[in-house]
Model the fold of this input.
Amino acid sequence: MDEVEPETLLVFRPAARDPSWRPGWDPIIVGEQPVRLEDLGQSAFIWRNFRVQAEFRLGGADFSESGVPVCVLDFALMLQAARAILREDGAAALELSDRVGEWVFDRQEGDDRVRLRRRYRLRDGYRYRAADGSCPLEAFDGLVDRSLTDALSLIFSAQPALRRNPYLRRLAAESGHPDPG
Done:
């Protein structure tokens, strides 16, 4: 993704060890029958396939998921959910599907900035990670829009047959992604 404001960016880099990025990828085997790419459901894209290193900085604070790759759609959809909840409630605490730790987004009433902190639940309560960043709401909205478009573009370029997958087609239509074909 391109930079949306100084010190605020999101870049997805496919994880080299993830076979779903490779040509000829054969998805999940159920029993002894291969599953067609067109038939893969949401969980195939949220839990185990299309993992990326996510470089993510918001207002200079580093929230990158570089240690353990994350599913690209899970990350993009978390950001979509954060934006939707922020519009309604002004605050959102979300988790990625495959790991512990909340992403805490908030916006003060009348404030045009989005703040993000990470926190982890411990036995004695919550502890925040050192990163604490914010950016203008407009920059956050642009970043969220591009995150889903970029995620789908990566998936479609790696596995063109997934352009026919109903779940991904719906996401592409909702995000304004160019016609997946």
Q: What stands out?
A: The beta strands are 9-14, 29-30, 33-34, 51-58, 61-62, 65-71, 91-95, 102-106, 113-122, 125-136. Helices lie at 42-48, 72-89, 137-158, 166-175.
